[in-house]
Write a structure and sequence with these properties.
The chain is an all-beta fold and 383 residues long. The chain contains two helices and 27 strands. It has a domain of 210 residues.
Length: 383
């Protein structure tokens, strides 16, 4: 079997995202417990794997569902696929060693005729994997649901992605679909171009874990996020976060035209560092002690210097004192029949954002909130 094409492609956003690229190469066929599907039968395959194995799966179109269980096995089922195969990506010294990297091949009738058409099947697939496993799944047109595993990488162009109860990491990207993450821990990176991204009850698994989310026009809704470093960016969507702040945590929110709404407990303690437009105000229900506020003077319009005529071009000082012989006469060029394009007479304008910088503190300033907004409302509300 030849090397497999890239499984997960980068999907994002604005400000883009967040990137999601996973490459696989050099596979070795693994033992399949059943042969090809018989007419009218459901396809099912089972393989013993390492409890922390990495399993990859992709289709062109179809819903993908992944569940974690307590068995050291991968079980794949489909009512649409014509054939399912396992291929080992790892190269163990002992053939009987449980696989640590498995590539699940989903084949329909067209793919059976041309095995190189990997990731081109149209089929819904359900997969059970060890709870400690990491999965990498992709579908172009279809929803993805992942529950109860260690790590999840998921990509869908037009479908929705739902991830629950992952313990180490979650990375997901969608172009037009929404993304939902619930009751999970670890490192997080979520991005969607036009869909809503929501996350509820997410915490860090280690002190180095970060929580990153980005959209272009979709809303961002965060609730009870206990990661020590939260970064959220959107261009025109509404950005909302609700819940307590982590002590010594860092929160960065960037929005161009949409609203930013932060709802926190009444005893919240934080330092606020904000960059807003000249006409924006911060609507706060918290008592803020302003340390500084600066409004830079708008930059002056650059002067436009006209270009001198060709017969009046300035000479360098050395050239002024040395006479040069006249150039030899040239044959005049034939008249141009097309449109004449003259030189530019103006220099391009440089646009500098006219922003105010605000520094304030609430309570003892345990956490840091950094906000950058250039048009939308900013609201700090008490829960």
């Amino acid at each position: 079997m030849k090397g497999r094409a890239k499984l997960i492609k980068t999907l994002f956003a604005v400000a883009a995202a967040s990137g999601l690229i996973l490459s696989l190469a050099g596979s070795t066929p693994a033992h399949n417990e059943e042969k090809a599907r018989q007419p009218g039968q459901k396809v099912e395959r089972t393989l013993t794997v390492d409890p922390q194995a990495t399993i990859t799966l992709c289709v062109a179109s179809g819903a993908l569902t992944v569940h974690g269980w307590d068995k050291h096995e991968v079980r794949v089922r489909s009512t649409d696929a014509d054939q399912l195969e396992f291929h080992r990506i790892d190269k163990p010294k002992e053939p009987n060693t449980p696989a640590t990297r498995i590539d699940v091949m989903v084949l329909d009738k067209n793919a059976r005729l041309n095995p190189n058409l990997d990731c081109q099947a149209i089929a819904d697939v359900d997969m059970d994997v060890p709870a400690g496993a990491t999965v990498q799944v992709q579908t172009r047109d279809g929803d993805i649901a992942i529950v109860g595993i260690a790590g999840a990488y998921a990509g869908s162009q037009n479908g929705d992605i739902t991830i629950e109860k992952v313990t180490k990491l979650a990375e997901a990207g969608s172009v037009g679909g929404s993304i939902s993450l619930k009751d999970s821990s670890g490192r997080v990176n979520l991005s969607s171009a036009g869909g809503v991204v929501e996350a509820y009850n997410v915490r860090a698994a280690s002190a180095e874990d970060t929580f990153e989310v980005g959209t272009v026009s979709g809303d961002i809704q965060l609730e009870t996020i206990s990661s020590p470093r939260v970064l959220a960016k959107t261009v025109s969507g509404t950005l909302t976060m609700s819940g307590a702040l982590v002590k010594s945590g860092y929160y960065s929110f960037t929005n161009v035209t949409g609203e930013i709404v932060l709802a926190m407990p009444a005893n919240a303690s934080f330092r606020l560092s904000a960059k807003v437009s000249d006409k924006q105000n911060i609507d706060s229900e918290f008592p803020l002690k302003y340390a500084s506020e600066t409004s830079p003077t708008p930059p002056a319009r650059p002067r436009v210097l006209p270009l001198p005529p060709d017969n009046e071009k300035p000479l360098k000082e050395k050239e002024k004192s040395v006479a040069k012989p006249a150039p030899p006469a040239k044959t005049p060029a034939p008249p141009r029949t097309g449109p004449a394009v003259g030189p530019m007479t103006e220099r391009p304008m440089v646009i500098v954002p006219y922003v105010r910088r605000i520094e304030a503190i609430c309570g003892s300033g345990d956490a840091v909130i950094s906000i950058a907004s250039f048009g939308g409302a900013i609201r700090l509300k008490k829960l």
